[in-house]
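thought: fold this chain, then report.
action: predict
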Amino acid sequence: MTSDETLEAIHTVLSEHMMHQHLDGFGPEARLNEDLYLDSVLILQIFLNLELEYGLSVPEEAIARQDVQTVADLVALYQPKATATVVPSFPLTGGTTDEGVHGEAYYDIKVHCFVSCVCDGLKRQGLDHRPFYFGVWDAKFAMSDRFQLLYHAPDITQEFFRAWFQRLYGVAVREWYDPDISKSDNLAVMLDLVRRRKETGSVMVMLDMFHLPERENKFNQNPFPHYLMLQETADPDTWFVYDPDYRWEGEISRDKVIHAVMQPTVGGGYVFDNAEAHAPDAKDLKAYFEACFVRDNNPLTDAVREIVTAHLGGRGGIGLSDLSAAVRELPVITIRKYAYEHGFAFFWRALKLPAREFEGWCDEIEALVQALKALHYDCMKLSQTGERALAAPVFERLAEADRIETKLKGKLAEIFDLWCDQNVPADIPMLKRVAR
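observation:
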């Protein structure tokens, strides 16, 4: 196909096959997220429909990475390439152009909104926040009674992270949101906290990002519960919104923020003072790692395997056509695997291990993330076609992700033990991992 034909095919897929409602600004220069409201899952849906309806396919790497910003970028994926573009494969160090793991310059991973908010205060105090990400790569998620993967559910709380943050860094993270009182009463509490916020203080609130359309939303979920921080400006009608997880800050209408906070889909908030923070003790870091670390299995791939098996078997009246919806939130959970880089980087620096080896392990982390993204695509394809023979590639992809993550955990356990030998007295007992 020519570029014009591919452009027309994309428009047809969006309008006729996906019934997408936001096509007024469609054209080569239209931005996929900001102008057309296409999130990462919908972009995968475009890839899938172009393959099934037009026989157009792109390299698996393109499906996994989704390095596309505009419609023109999307069209270009389907055109012949004279040379391959080299993409830096080490998200933590930013490739090979900086000082690497032992230097000051490194890419700061943001993969969990609560953790990103509290860690922001540590960085402002000049403290190392990376150990707190030990709890993120296998952070808790849920599975509904309809075998749907959920990154947010009523039984998922931040208590595990809140308690450990206080133990490690000495910062009391107080929950101000009370689920037993009305939304209006909780709003009054939040307004007072924002008004009285000290210079070193932080007011965190959960809101529904779907109701802030002016914000770029890579995972355009509806609803999209998300924590960020608020403070007043000189203009009483405007708030300063600080979102460390999305690396965004700026002024937004106070009323728009309140509208997103007051949605019935969300509820939560915390307050803390960054000035209280101190460096953690080595024995507490050891205890935290052991409380987080799942040595013998990989909860995410285990859950997806169960979900796919349930849909293949028709458990509870569900079928393959329901599988796409069941794994829709997989990308949100997948990005948590980048937290492994913080774990490797912390121990690598402390032990002064070779930087080149670190970059090799970053490659493995990237391979895990890409395998999970490709798994998501394979699940969508199985669901949309209903061809049971396509289940085999899904289970092969699950096995691949399992293999990579098990390898990562093996190395991480090895360097953790080495770090403990050098930093923690041997008489401290090992803790069992607790449910979160």
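thought: worth noting. The chain has three domains: 3-76, 100-163+279-423, 172-276.
final: tokens above.
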